[in-house]
Design goal:
mainly alpha; 3 helices; about 80% helix; about 0% strand
Length: about 80
């Protein structure tokens, strides 16, 4: 019975380590490198991958689109805060 729980734990550990590695891969980084790091520090690498790594797959059009949306939302926020006063 102990062997079954150990196997379950190892499988769960590997699955959890795949999560940050897969996100890093989708951003254009090495899956194997981030998987190896995630095997020991998955909670830290998950945070780094989601919030710290720059997305290498973004095109200039994507960046321009994101900037336009941000500017539009900022303008709407300013307009709404001005009408509330």
């Amino acid at each position: 019975m102990v062997i079954a729980w150990v196997m379950f734990g190892l499988i769960a550990w590997i699955i959890v380590a795949i999560w940050p590695a897969r996100v890093a891969y989708n951003k254009g980084y090495s899956f194997l490198l981030w998987f190896a790091i995630s095997m020991f520090f998955w909670w830290i690498t998950l945070f780094i991958v989601y919030f710290g790594l720059k997305d290498k797959t973004k095109t200039p059009e994507d960046v321009a689109s994101d900037k336009a949306v941000t500017e539009f939302m900022d303008e709407e926020m300013r307009r709404d805060s001005g009408s509330n006063q």
